[in-house]
Every structure is written in structure tokens, then in C-alpha cells.
Design a protein that fits this description.
The complex is a heterodimer. Helix content of chain A is 51%, strand content 19%. In chain A, a hairpin with a 4-residue loop joins strand 4 and strand 5. Chain A folds into 3 domains: 75 residues, no CATH class; 71 residues, no CATH class; 29 residues. The model of chain B has no long low-confidence stretch (mean pLDDT 89). By secondary structure, chain B is an alpha+beta fold. In chain B, 25% of the residues lie in helices and 34% in strands. The chains are: A alpha+beta, B alpha+beta. The interface between A and B is medium-sized, with 22 and 19 residues.
Chain lengths: 182, 151
């Protein structure tokens, strides 16, 4: 009797603690699940425009003229000649490929997805170090929540009937997927 | 003198904070010019090197590769990392990087070479001419274990 009460109290409080990270990991999980269809971290916009009258006699001139003609109020972080035709210009959050032969500028603008980027950083354990231990601790708590959850209720609504059936279905479903896809 | 030392320390801390490390710590003291590696790549296969250059491109989906500019025009080297072990952010594009790892040789089949060339042409909006691809491609890339990028 006392064990069930203790389990219920621990399940409740650890459950409260786990809400934040569960939501973060679940949202990020959905986002990275579809990585083949979209970039879960950034929105990348590309556009192309023609820039005539660029003096291509010196690379520094090309860089400043391209930025001026595009009306961008940022300074170039650097540049590199990718091939004999293309000069790649780097600005904060932006890359411009200027083609000397065609006079076309391809502009790529990268914006971090609000919150989703941060969620993914945590979910995919990019920080490593202490975050590894913290997320391990969280995972152990999830295991506790899963196991303790089975013993919160007594009788037919617990593991004596309904609980056993639902737990069995929950285990069989991923196993079936595994068999089907292997 | 005291003020000077404090100022130097402060600047050093600021500089250090701007450099973001990825993966394992860099261990080599000297860098090898990318142009030197690309001049005779066979010599460097399976060798541990550290290269330095500007990040030209970043894998848009997983951040699992970058290309680093050479000290010479029109040259760059691909840097590949284990998926998920190191994730390069898009913000590293255009930033100066030091990368350490082992040079590896990737030999493509004729079929893979054709597909790769076709993809490159599509990316650059050029017409693909299969007859121009006469032999399978070979790529030398850096399998990186660690990187430091001046964010």
C-alpha cells in the first residue's frame, strides 16, 4: 500500500519535472524525423538577379560593387574564388555567388528557425559535455515514469487486465514494424 | 603595466569565446596548406593533418560536411564528419576554420561519377553532357575528428 503511494508521488513529481524536456524532445523528434523533406534547423531562401556594370578588374572591387548594387547594408566577412567564373561573397547570414561571365548573382539567405533550432541542439546533443549526463538522467527518469506508470492503479484498470493488454500492444507494435522493415 | 596585462587577458578571453570547437581537441601544432595536399594527394592518404581556410559551404540537412577554401583560388577540400558526432552550423559559412583529421581517398564508380556530375550541373544550372565524363572520379577528402571555427 505504502509502496504504491510512494510510486504515485514520485511519478507525479518526476512527471512534472519531465514536462519541459519531453515537449522539447518530442517537437524536435517530429522535426528531425522529416529531415529528408526539410531542414529542421534553418530556413534557406535563394534568389537570383542580374547585376550589370560590375567592374571585374579586381576581386575587391567586385565584392563591394555587388553588395552596393544589391542594396545590402552589411560588410563582407570574406570572399573566395570558387571557380574561374564564380566569386563567393560571405556576409552575416548570407552568401552571394557572383558569376563574372553571366553577371548573375545568386543570393542565399539563411535564417535559424525560431526555437526549433534550439530544441534540435538539445535533442541531438550538440553541446555534448554536461548535457550528455543531464539527458542521460532525464532518460533514466523516463524509464522510471514508464515502469511506475504500470503500477499506479490496482485491479482491472491496472495490470490485472486493461494495463497488461495495452502494454502488450505497445510492445508488439514496434516489433511488428521492425519485422516488416527488416 | 597591470592595466595592460588585464587588457591583454580580456582580449584573449574575448578571442577565445569567439572560437567554437567541434569534436575532439586539435592536437597538431602545424597546419598543412590545402594546395600542398591537393598537389600530391596520394602522399597524404591516411595521414593526419590540420588544414586552415574559410568555410565555403555547409551540409544543409545535417551539418555533416563542410568545404574549406584552399590558399589558392578555385581550390577547396571537402571535410566529412561522422553523422551526429559533429554538427556544423550554417552560421559557420564564411568563417575561418582549422580542421584536423585524416585524408581519405574515395573512388567512385562510373555510374556514381555520372550521377555526381549530373547533380553538379543541375545545381549550377548548366546542361549535362554525359559524353564529357570519360573516367570514374576520385575524391580526396578530410575525415575530420575536430575543428575550431572563428564564429
Amino acid at each position: 500500500m505504502k509502496v504504491r503511494k510512494l510510486l504515485r508521488d514520485l511519478h507525479r513529481d518526476i512527471g512534472y519535472l519531465a514536462v519541459g524536456l519531453t515537449v522539447i524532445f518530442a517537437v524536435s523528434g517530429i522535426a528531425v524525423n522529416h529531415i529528408h523533406d526539410w531542414n529542421p534547423n534553418y530556413s534557406i531562401e535563394t534568389s537570383e538577379t542580374e547585376l550589370n556594370g560590375i567592374d571585374t578588374s579586381a576581386i575587391e572591387k567586385i565584392t563591394t560593387q555587388v553588395i552596393d548594387k544589391l542594396g545590402i547594408e552589411k560588410k563582407a566577412d570574406g570572399w573566395h574564388r570558387v571557380n574561374p567564373e564564380v566569386v563567393r561573397i560571405f556576409l552575416e547570414g548570407m552568401t552571394i555567388d557572383y558569376n563574372i561571365h553571366t553577371s548573375k548573382a545568386r543570393i542565399e539567405q539563411v535564417n535559424s528557425r525560431f526555437l526549433l533550432r534550439e530544441f534540435n541542439v538539445l535533442h541531438l546533443n550538440e553541446p555534448k559535455q554536461a548535457w550528455t549526463w543531464f539527458s542521460d538522467f532525464y532518460a533514466v527518469n523516463l524509464i522510471f515514469l514508464a515502469i511506475s506508470g504500470m503500477f499506479l492503479l490496482k485491479g482491472r484498470k491496472g495490470m490485472k487486465w486493461r494495463g497488461t493488454w495495452l502494454v502488450t500492444i505497445g510492445i508488439i507494435l514496434p516489433v511488428l514494424f521492425l519485422i516488416y522493415y527488416q | 603595466m597591470k592595466k595592460f596585462i588585464i587588457a591583454v587577458l580580456f582580449i584573449s578571453i574575448l578571442w577565445a569565446a569567439d572560437t567554437k570547437n567541434f569534436g575532439e581537441d586539435l592536437t597538431l601544432k602545424e597546419t598543412t596548406a590545402i594546395s600542398t595536399i591537393l598537389e600530391s594527394p596520394e602522399k597524404y592518404v591516411d595521414q593526419k593533418v590540420m588544414v586552415e581556410g574559410r568555410v565555403l559551404d555547409v551540409c544543409k540537412k545535417r551539418g555533416c560536411w563542410i568545404t574549406v577554401s584552399s590558399d589558392k583560388d578555385f581550390e577547396s577540400i571537402m571535410v566529412k564528419v561522422e553523422d551526429g558526432v559533429i554538427v556544423f552550423p550554417q552560421e559557420s559559412k564564411g568563417k575561418m576554420a582549422r580542421v584536423e583529421g585524416v585524408i581519405e581517398k574515395i573512388e567512385f564508380s562510373m555510374e556514381e561519377t555520372l550521377a555526381k556530375e549530373k547533380h553538379e550541373c543541375e545545381k549550377e544550372g548548366k546542361e549535362f553532357d554525359a559524353s564529357k565524363v570519360t573516367k570514374p572520379d576520385v575524391m580526396y577528402r578530410l575525415k575530420a575528428t575536430g575543428a575550431a571555427i572563428e564564429m
